Amino acid sequence: MTGSIRNFYACGNTAHGFANLFDSSLQGLERLFIVSGRPGTGKSTLIRAIGEHMEKNGYDVWLIHSPSDNGSLDGLIVPELKAGIVDGSAPRVIRPQQAGIDLKYVDLDVACNTDKLIGSTSAIERLNDEIDQAYERSYAGFAEALRIHDEWESIYIANMDYQAADRLTNEYISRLYGDSDRKGDKHSRIDHRFLGAATPKGAVDFVPNLTEGLKRYFVKGRAGSGKSTMLKKLAAAGIERGYDVEMYHCGFDPNSLDMVIVRELGFAVFDSTAPHEYFTERPDDEIIDMYTSCIKPGTDEAHAETIGEIKQRYSAKMKQSIQQLTHVKSLHDELKDIYAKSIDFRIVDQIAADVLLEFSGLAALQ
Fold it and tell me: InterPro entries per the record (predicted)?
């Protein structure tokens, strides 16, 4: 019997720059492997191999994907073993906050023969500089897109019925949690993650995977119609009652929420608008329409020309920023090709085997 896979992001390329929520996913771990190494040394390959092995042996695995390379992993967690392995290379900063965690550092650079890189020094420096510049252009573009998005939101905020939004939110708090009080002295585990990210291939999300087996509430609406505020209040209600709550932040603006999951109660509530727009397909899927419930009727029609112009500017800026991420990926691939020529992959394979053996040893102790 194989285990299940849960996919999400712990980092993101956002309007506030590179956002890192990694620490949240590391809570509760007793053993953590932190892998470092130059591009092309096989960090993601090592992480994926361990994930596949643990899944085949019946363990549930959380795969943490890279927002900068659609085919790469930033880490994984095996909850039952209270163990994980993460890529600790920049720009990720992995500093677990909890005491007592056993940290193991895995340096794949030991497999690199630096003498073979002497002739490539200038090319490596150039590529690294170009990567930094492309990231800066991408983040600046996302920041400008957020300012444009604020213009978009202001139209609906000016036509918002806040009392209606509060009533709707309270209705769903009551429906989702009932009359339940705090669950004794239990403290909530709160996981901060991203359900999706801006990547070299555009916006990518894992909503279907993350909501599998759950009752799903699709929050529909417009920019500024109160979707994130509702989600924050639903999450706060769960935390107040002692439930474990998964809070999925917006991959564009981390200050906003896109989804809340309370698996103990079997539900997921998420912002089902572009770029992660989904439609009901299961018998128990349900729509929460913030626009019809909370926005003055006719707002779309009254401001159609202005909204259309804002959408065009927003889409153009987002497209430019994604193109910069695509450029980063191509530059990074060039770096990988340079470093790959200096790596003894027999050493990498042996290191991978040693790490896999440690994971197997943890499993044997269960």
Answer: P-loop_NTPase (IPR027417)
